[in-house]
Every structure is written in structure tokens, then in C-alpha cells.
């Protein structure tokens, strides 16, 4: 099968959209399919043997936004795909959807970024009407797709509540070959732990982009928990402000590959802070490493954390609830035992969520669309 992937984000930018697109491409290569990627510049010329077509872009709030130019249609026409896969469509992706419709190519859209919530958070006084306008725009964008896939039950509900039809559920895989509890025996991981917790403190970790929408400032009261060290992995526009806000935390910066796996494995508890996640890939990676996860009872984490069994879900509207849950896993008398039981169960739960199995399901959607043709 020939698949064209039009994505709002790609390498060298690292985020959830980029990661999922790369994993899909890896699995398509393993299954012997052909693919091409259309992405904002700057981008590599190829990825895993697949050509990458870079589109002119403009920077917007630390992101590279691809311009919706007519050349996308020419690129798709030249490749002649069986199906077009559009990742997190907004500007570039919207043009990809229009192009696919013009060329009468079946097209699938992956909803991944809660742009309306982002607009609401950054829009000031105009945030609410701007968020409503964003949903109206997204309703038009997704009306162009033959199938719209959401990563979690909460995201799927959002789509349907806002009038988006032809929907389905498609989660995300996790690389259990990279993220696993065995890293705790790694010499580099042990050395990092001695640096972060020289007196044997309990390490509470966060991994992710450091930006306002991630709400990392929620970690502030955790720094004062007795016997706890906070480790923050990642980078972004909020890093400097967060370092000033969290002087007792250690910032490990952006990490990839084995170094990222060590950053998870050095932790005893993983905390996710954002309340606008459509999924929460870092929660799965932490679980695969054998960590109990503490996350908001809102959005994607609701599907990923079994409260009391694989981690804890806190009430994001209660400013004390996160600290209370983290304390129960760090300073309580039975904290070590609770962490061990939850971490083991979390690791077991993610073992069946390989990227290959998830992408096999995606390929089945591709095949269905090619048989049915485009929607009327």
C-alpha cells in the first residue's frame, strides 16, 4: 500500500505528533509499505528510507507552522497514494485534506492536539470566543476526512460533542524495548540517581515539553515534601521561568533514546501535570519503566491510569490534591510498598500496547478506506 502522511510537526521538532508519525513510519517500513511524508521545513530529506517533502514554514510560539500552499496537491498527485494520513490537522493538514479531496484520494485524520484549549489558555479576554471559533474551524477541517481518529475516550467525546462525525478510537503504542524497568541496573542510571538523590531521597519526575499549556508549575509544592527530590526532563519556552519557580528541582534538559530511558528509570514516581492532553504518551513510557503515575483526572490520562492500581488521578481543581497523592507514594509509611505494587501492575498493563500492533490497526483502517472510497 502507498501512504502519504501530511503532518503539522516533524523532525527536528520533538513532540507527541512527531513521535507518533515516526513510529507509524517505522512500522510501515517493517510491513513493506511505501510512504512519503509532507512536513514543515526544516526537515530531513528522508526518514527510514521514506522521502520527506519539506514545506515552507513560519515560526509561531516556538513551533514551525507549515504554510498551506498548493504545492501539497502537486506532491500528492506525483506520489499517487492509496490513502492520505493527516496528523493533527490545522493549517498544513487542512490543505492536505483539501488536496486529498480534490484528487479523490481516501483520507484519514488523526486528532491529537487540543488547539481549542490552547487558544483558550493563551487568548486572554478573547480566549472563550476564540476557542469557540477554533472548534468551528476544526469542525470544517475534520469534515473533509473520511475517518477521524481520536487517541482517547475523552478526546473522542470532545470531537463528537463539537459536531465532528465519522469518528473512531486509535490510541498510541509504547516502545517497551526502550522503556523498561531493567534500566535501574544500568551504571549510568545509578550514577544519575546518586547525583539527584545523594541522601537516598525519593525522586519524583516529570518528562515533557516545558510550556505554559503543560502546567508544570503544579510541581511547585512537591519541592517542599520531606525526603523528596524533583527532577524535570525536557525543554521549551517556559524552562527559564520554571527554574526560577522551582529552585529546589533539578532540570535535566532535553533527552533522547537511552538517556531519556534513564531519566524515567531514575525516578520513583512519575507526575504528569497538564490537563489538556488528548492522550499522554509520557504516562505510557513511565508505566513501561515500572513507575506509578500521578496525573490529572481529566483528558487522556483517564484512559491510561487505573486509579489505585497503576497510579493515582488527582483533582486538578483542588490545589492540594496532587501534593496529597504524591505524598501517599513518597512520605507515607507504606509508600515504598505502594509504589512497587502499582509500578509492577502499570508495567504489565502496557505490554500489549506495542507500536506494531497499534499500526496494524491503523493499516486496517487504511485498507477499509481504500475499499470504500471517499465519503460523499
Give an overview in words.
The protein has an 8-stranded mixed sheet, sandwiched between helices. A 6-stranded parallel sheet has the order 13-12-11-14-15-16, with helices on both faces. The model has no long low-confidence stretch (mean pLDDT 94). The chain has 2 domains: 191 residues, Glycogen Phosphorylase B (Rossmann fold); 170 residues, Rossmann fold. It contains 14 helices and 16 strands. Strand 1, helix 1 and strand 2 form a beta-alpha-beta unit. The chain has 376 residues and is of the alpha/beta class.
Q: Which oligomeric form is depicted?
A: single chain
What overall form do the CA principal axes indicate?
globular
Number of strands: 16
Largest sheet: 8 strands, mixed
Uncertain residue ranges: none
CATH superfamily of the largest domain: Glycogen Phosphorylase B
Mean pLDDT: 94
State the helix count.
Answer: 14
In short:
The chain is an alpha/beta fold. It is 40% helix and 19% strand. It has two domains: 2-173 and 354-372, Glycogen Phosphorylase B (Rossmann fold), CATH 3.40.50; 181-350, Glycogen Phosphorylase B (Rossmann fold, 3-Layer(aba) Sandwich).
Amino acid at each position: 500500500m502507498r501512504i502519504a502522511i501530511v503532518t503539522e510537526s516533524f523532525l527536528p521538532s520533538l513532540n507527541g505528533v512527531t513521535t507518533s508519525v515516526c513510529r507509524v513510519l517505522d512500522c510501515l517500513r517493517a510491513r513493506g509499505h511505501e510512504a512519503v511524508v509532507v512536513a514543515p521545513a526544516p526537515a530531513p530529506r528522508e526518514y527510514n528510507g521514506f522521502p520527506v517533502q519539506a514545506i515552507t514554514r513560519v515560526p509561531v510560539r516556538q513551533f514551525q507552522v507549515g504554510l498551506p500552499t498548493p504545492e501539497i496537491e502537486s506532491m500528492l498527485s506525483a506520489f499517487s497514494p492509496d490513502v492520505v494520513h493527516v496528523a493533527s490537522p490545522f493549517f498544513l493538514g487542512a490543505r492536505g485534506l483539501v488536496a486529498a479531496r480534490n484528487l479523490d484520494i481516501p483520507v484519514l485524520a488523526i486528532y491529537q492536539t487540543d488547539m481549542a484549549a490552547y487558544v483558550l489558555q493563551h487568548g486572554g479576554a478573547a480566549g472563550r470566543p476564540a476557542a469557540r471559533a477554533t472548534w468551528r474551524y476544526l469542525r470544517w477541517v475534520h469534515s473533509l476526512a473520511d475517518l477521524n481518529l481520536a487517541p482517547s475516550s475523552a478526546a473522542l467525546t470532545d470531537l463528537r460533542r463539537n459536531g465532528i462525525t465519522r469518528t473512531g478510537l486509535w490510541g498510541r503504542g509504547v516502545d517497551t524495548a526502550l522503556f523498561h524497568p531493567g534500566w535501574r541496573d544500568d551504571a549510568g542510571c545509578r550514577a544519575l540517581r546518586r547525583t539527584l538523590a545523594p541522601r537516598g531521597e525519593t525522586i519524583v519526575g516529570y518528562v515533557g515539553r516545558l510550556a505554559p499549556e503543560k502546567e508544570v508549575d503544579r510541581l511547585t509544592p512537591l519541592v517542599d515534601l520531606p525526603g523528596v527530590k524533583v527532577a524535570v526532563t525536557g525543554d521549551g519556552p517556559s524552562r527559564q521561568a520554571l527554574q526560577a519557580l522551582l529552585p529546589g528541582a533539578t532540570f535535566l534538559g532535553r533527552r533522547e533514546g537511552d538517556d531519556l530511558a534513564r531519566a524515567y528509570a531514575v525516578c520513583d514516581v512519575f507526575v504528569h501535570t497538564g490537563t489538556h492532553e488528548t492522550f499522554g504518551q509520557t504516562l505510557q513510557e513511565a508505566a513501561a519503566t515500572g513507575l506509578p503515575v500521578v496525573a490529572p483526572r481529566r483528558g487522556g490520562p483517564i484512559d491510561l491510569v487505573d486509579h489505585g492500581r497503576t497510579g493515582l488521578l488527582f483533582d486538578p481543581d483542588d490545589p492540594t490534591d496532587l501534593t496529597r497523592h504524591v505524598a501517599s507514594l513518597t512520605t507515607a509509611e507504606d509508600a515504598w510498598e505502594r509504589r512497587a505494587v502499582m509500578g509492577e501492575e502499570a508495567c504489565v498493563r502496557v505490554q500489549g500496547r506495542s507500536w506494531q500492533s497499534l499500526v496494524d490497526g491503523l493499516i486496517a483502517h487504511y485498507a477499509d478506506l481504500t475499499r470504500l472510497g471517499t465519503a460523499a
